[in-house]
Amino acid sequence: MICHQNGRLIGKPGNWWLKRLTIALSLDKVRSKENYITANPNPEWWTKHLNAIVLKEARENGWLVSGRIGDFGCNHGACTILAARLGWHVTGIDMNRDAISLAKEMKFKEQKEISSRLEFICSRFDHLPLEDACLDGGYIFDVIEHIYPKDRRAIFSELHRVLKPGARLLITTPFDHAYDDGLQHVAFFVESTLSDMLTEGGWQVNWIVRDRRPDFHTPHGHDRLNALVEWKS
User: Fold this and answer.
1) What is the pLDDT of residues 124-158, one digit of tens each?
2) d(CA 31, CA 163)
3) Does residue 93 contact residue 121 with C-beta atoms inside 8 Å?
4) What is 204-228 written as a DSSP string?
5) Angle, vertex CA 3, rays to CA 13 and CA 190, nearest 5
6) 3-state DSSP percent of the chain in helix, strand and coil, to 5
7) How far apart are CA 211 and CA 137, in angstroms?
8) Residue 167 vs residues 69, 134, 160: alpha-carbon distances, Å
9) What are phi and psi of 167, to 5 degrees?
10) From residue 99, how far is each of 39, 76, 91, 120, 164 by CA, in Å?
């Protein structure tokens, strides 16, 4: 099994090395390392997760405006569904075709009022099949640590294109090496490096906070950074 000590990887399963070698030799490293579906696709499991708390805070505090927003890196779409339950019209986007297929199945298990506010798209972030300035905002939960630094410019350019000027983006990412399994995570941030990276990417950073709050599934607390940024054209 994989164990962590102070966020550092100290044990590896037998297939860890094979997976790492497969990624290293792949012509498409991004697709190779992101070929998985996040555990616990049931939205009810996620209602007790810190992501649900952050989404509720975003709604109550007006961090993200009402309207059409994007869930960038939605995987199986459980948190996309939670956002729709809070009243947003949400477009969930992920490059994993199997994860998006599962998200579409779960969509139709929701009440019609909620499912009508949901859309799921299979796409990479550097070529989004969306019109210019079509989104009023969005969120990226635990995704930017998966993005190779060399790909940030193209991805941020596309996010700028599909977001309306002045749109806000809510971002969460692990603090430094927290949750790092040595496979998917390729970028690591503390408050200062996250701020620098976002500013260089063309975002106005409104705030960044370290979030160590517990939830039902993680009673000893998480260790993440939450950031709210704004697209200034």
Assistant:
1) 999 999 999 999 999 999 999 999 999 999 999 99
2) 25
3) yes
4) EEEEEEEE----SS-TT---EEEEE
5) 120
6) 35, 25, 40
7) 22
8) 9, 10, 9
9) -65, 145
10) 11, 5, 14, 10, 27
Residue 119 token pair: 């859309």
Give the pLDDT band of residue 2 (cuts 50, 70, 90): very low
Query: Where do the domains of the chain lie, and which CATH numbers do they carry?
Result: 38-231 (3.40.50.150)
CB 121 within 8 A of CB 100: yes
Q: Judge contact between 118 and 68, C-beta under 8 A.
A: no
Could you tell me the two tokens for 83? 């956002």
DSSP at 128: -
Q: In a 10 Å sphere around its CB, with 0-12 CB exposed, 13-18 middle and 19+ buried, how is residue 87 labelled? A: exposed
Cβ–Cβ < 8 Å for 150, 181: no
